[in-house]
Amino acid sequence: MSATTDIKKVLIVGAGLAGLSAAISLAKLGKEVTVIEQSDHLAYGASITIVNRGPDALQELGVLDEVVEQGFAGWNKSLYDDIFDDAGSRRPISPMPIREDDGLPSYILIYRPYLADILSRKATELGATIRLGVAVTSVVEHGDGVTVTLSADETVEADLVIGADGWRSALREQVFPGRITSTYSGNMSMRWVKRNPPPGADGFYITDQSGVVVIHNLGSDMVYIATGTDMENRHIEQDEAVELFREVLGRFSAPYVRALRDTITDDDEIVVRPYVYHNMPAPWHLGRILVIGDAAHTMSAHIASGGVMALEDGIVLGQELAIEEDLGTALLRFARRRAQRTFVAVDACRQMLDLQVNYQAHPRDVGRVREHAFRELLTAY
Ligand SMILES: Cc1cc2nc3c(=O)[nH]c(=O)nc-3n(C[C@H](O)[C@H](O)[C@H](O)COP(=O)(O)OP(=O)(O)OC[C@H]3O[C@@H](n4cnc5c(N)ncnc54)[C@H](O)[C@@H]3O)c2cc1C
């Protein structure tokens, strides 16, 4: 196998959090990095919550200050302190573990397009090339490299290809056909960002059966509203999504939820996605092709950690490529380090969804699983 020092050209498929984190980390190592993103824009219009070691990851990537500036950060408190019942009264809760008081925020909320923009600017500043509106259509490994075919019949050569192409990763299916089956949890997520919101208390509005509406202030006069509903897994068009979202928020009587619901217009964008999960055991590579981020591990928002795991993946990959001489060993060590940690996160989400969807469990019991996972995920990546 080749030496890590022989890896000069790296091609990353997908400019999500995993792809951009890997781009920054590998550009810092002096690699010639190209990121290919099929969409003509970075990220969709929803919020992301960064918890546990996420702020450390952002700091290591060199973007923490800007993310804090453009988002909404909390210090020495848990995001899960503010829990209400569906009528809007505060619920007593056992406190969630948070990072020690070390000067970094305990959590950050940020509009996803802002975070993507910050990360892509950092990657570009370090010399990476990001190409939007171009898809990878095939990847063929040969003796000493990989030939990558892009849409518009262009081919490029790379020494290492990283599939950061999301939970439905075509690259993973090509390299590891049938190895991963994503399991649908029975719950469909729905997300909305409201500009100039009415006044109200942020937090988690939770029914006794763990139906939940999350409302978070993102700064910049934006509020993020997320919920989910138990249903079959199928494609939902925008007009149905708006109706469904109204219907689900209508199950809550909290005045703030009602006030926000009243402002939904038929043209609002509701981001709908099934909550699925999978976690791929090591290895995550075959030869010179590696998968990272949601391609290797995907989960729900229940512990706000899928994006943080994706950011951590990029950093740990950089660490292993920097210290290991042999490429195969570096990639194997990388996946072994990551797969166990991502299993903790994925499994917590799986348990929480199961308790919620199949057992209509009390929020206290669902919260216990989150608490356990947070203790693990607060340790160093
Ligand atoms: C409802 C919901 C809420 C969530 N909330 C949080 C949260 O608060 N905090 C948190 O940490 N995590 C959260 N997550 C998880 C988080 O969003 C994901 O784990 C994370 O975005 C995964 O990043 P990624 O880069 O691996 O994949 P993606 O973000 O899916 O990026 C993959 C990219 O690859 C591109 N691509 C795919 N195929 C090709 C191709 N052939 N050629 C070129 N480009 C291609 C896609 O267009 C896409 O841009 C949430 C998830 C859901 C469903």
- Any idea what the CATH superfamily of the largest domain is called? FAD/NAD(P)-binding domain
What general outline do the C-alpha atoms trace? globular
Q: What distance lies between the first and last C-alpha atoms, to the nearest angstrom?
A: 27 Å
Instruction: Count every beta strand, where a strand is a DSSP E run of 2 or more residues.
Output: 19
User: How many structural domains?
Assistant: 2
What is the class of the largest domain in the CATH system?
Alpha Beta
- Order of H and E elements: EHEEHHEEEHEEEEEHEEEEHHEEEEHHH
Helicity range: 25-40%
Give a short synopsis of this structure.
This protein has 381 residues and is an alpha/beta fold. The protein has helices at residues 17-28, 54-61, 64-70, 112-125, 170-175, 238-249, 255-262, 306-323, 327-359, 363-377; strands spanning 9-13, 32-37, 47-50, 72-74, 83-84, 107-111, 129-132, 136-142, 145-150, 154-158, 160-163, 183-195, 203-206, 212-219, 222-230, 271-279, 285-286, 289-291, 297-298.
